Amino acid sequence: MTFTGKRILLGVSGGIAAYKAAELVRRLVSVRARVKVVMTRAAQEFMGPLTFQALSGEKVGTALFGPGSDPLEHVSLGQEVDAIVLAPATANLIGKLAAGIGDDLLTTIMLAATKPILVCPAMNDQMWANPVVQENLDRLQARGFQVMAPESGDLACGAVGLGRLPEPETIVEALARLVSKQDFAGRRVLVTAGPTHEDLDPVRFLTNRSSGKMGYALARMAWRRGAEVCLISGPTALAPPYGVERLMVRSAQDMLKAVRQRFPKVDALLMAAAVGDYRPTHAKARKIKRGPQEEQFQLTPNPDILKEMGALKKRQVVVGFAAETHDLEDEARRKLAAKNLDLIVANDVNRPDAGFQVDTNEVTIIARQGEPLRLPLLTKEEVAEIILDRVVELLTAREQGTTGA
Ligand code: PMT
Q1: 100, 191, 323, 380: most buried by Cβ count inside 10 Å?
Q2: pLDDT at 238
């Protein structure tokens, strides 16, 4: 898992959003990160160090000097951890970091820090709009700090505007990229996910059981590993993965149009979408009325998106999925060859704990050469990680001029 064994330093400065930092610690601990919290003096006016200590299980850093302070922490902490997150980061803290001031434990740690830093500003909307704050953030970004823009909404001061700290789950997502290997950095990945809706009339459509979870997991993990990701999604209830560009489509024809447009610019296409193989030949413009007689519908085959991309591909790695109820590996191999794919992920959809809708999956990854990789039951994120490992192997082999097939 992305955060297992990773050490995160959370710097909390003095704003009302400090209460959200407690939830951030809880979430990070729940994904198995080890969290060390350091608070500014002003942060301690809003939240007690004991809260953070109880949630993180680690002593909280509160002062450079005095009883209980560690004489070396101000140098070592920012070098020992895997990543640093400042949440909330006040205008004052941002200003001190930009100016290189180290006048308390947190700012001194930051002066000596060598690890990736995520700054999450939260403040009043007028403070956020102040050019000096923006200039300071520009300076931090120019020095390699990642800045997560605040959200718009009701602020504690009563105003409505930009300045709210993003939700802890969003901060965890942004942080996940900072602690992940960046083997997809500089690479573009296109993922499809979810079902398609093929209209019968204005209120009814043909669809399937895909929730989008497998494709969204692929998009999320590719982004974490440094890729620029575009996710073309059929209708789902899932939130867009952080950092990923999401294009919503409805029908197979819409999906084909979007994939065609993006495909030439990407390094890899992963098609986890369950594309409808057929659409009603004549979608009715008006709602079909109930009657005593049988209704007959004629179906027209949809275009095979993956097959078209397989035929067009040049340097791209193209990955398909095969959702099967029988002859799993034979059917998958047939699709691998027929659609000119580099990899196919064979998915037995008879099982209740794999395939559609659930958070787990059990798949076999088949390449054009070599033994199939039969995986045990894993979470969809774990499956996505292993598929991406194979994709990056193929991309690297192509870049180095070996086949990698
Ligand atoms: O979304 P979830 O609930 O998480 O479920 C995940 C999943 C079961 C949908 C996923 O793991 C999966 O197996 N996706 C592929 C489903 C599918 O449509 O399989 P297929 O065997 O019918 O198609 C083979 C491949 O061709 C697929 O990559 C599909 O995207 C593609 N295809 C299919 C038909 C078509 N007209 N155009 C296509 O591009």
Answers
A1: 191
A2: 98
